[in-house]
Amino acid sequence: MVLPHPLHPGTLLRRYQRFLAEVRLSDGTVVTAHCPNSGSMKGCAIPGSPVLLSHSDNPRRKLRYTWETVQVNGVWIGIHTGRTNQLAREGIEGGVVRELQGYESIRREVRYAENSRIDLLLEFARGLCYVEVKNVTLVEDGLALFPDAVTTRGQKHLRNLMQMVREGHRAVTLFIVQREDAGALSPADAIDPEYGKLLREAAGAGVEVLAYQAKVAPPEIRVYRKLPVQL
Known about the structure:
By secondary structure, the protein is α+β, with helices and mostly antiparallel strands. Helix content is 16%, strand content 44%. The protein has helices spanning 84-93, 152-166, 193-204; strands spanning 8-16, 20-25, 30-34, 50-55, 65-72, 75-78, 105-112, 116-124, 127-136, 138-140, 143-146, 170-177, 184-187, 208-217, 220-227. The protein has a 6-stranded mixed beta sheet. The protein has a 5-stranded mixed beta barrel with strand order 1-2-3-5-4. Strands 10-11-13 form a 3-stranded mixed beta sheet. The longest helix has 15 residues, at 152-166.
């Protein structure tokens, strides 16, 4: 994936009201940017951190700038959760995610379960594969952790995937770690113990749990290797 061109460098002043960020651009101008991440962004919203913003000329947009990446301790991190599904799809179509090869078609945002949409639906000759994609930005002591805030929505997704397995389908939760300083992934039990419990339950029920790492080297982000999962 190549991020929108050009990217505008700046310094994070603050993130506030969850979806807003105040950034000082390299020319000294202070702008308010859209923050496309609903999590806590623990460790990723430190004032003074270098950031990169994309810009839109769409006159209908209230905020012209969008926060794309942040650099923490020399490591670039992709914080735009709206790009994660495309990253996952590129990883699948490019053959990097080996567990999800051999599909005949791939669709996005398909309705399933009760009042839900699956991120990616892969159709194989032998059946359907439901793939729920999660963006991971939190790393502590070399371990990628998800979620970074309590996620009732994420808990619902795991229950839905277990339902798909019971109905005879293949189901996968695919974590995309958008930073390179992690060597493995684990549920963040200290943040959301219920999610960790459900993830282990789902794995035991036949839901496949996969984690892949993305190389964030602006303007490019690409999925490039598998990470071990520690449940």
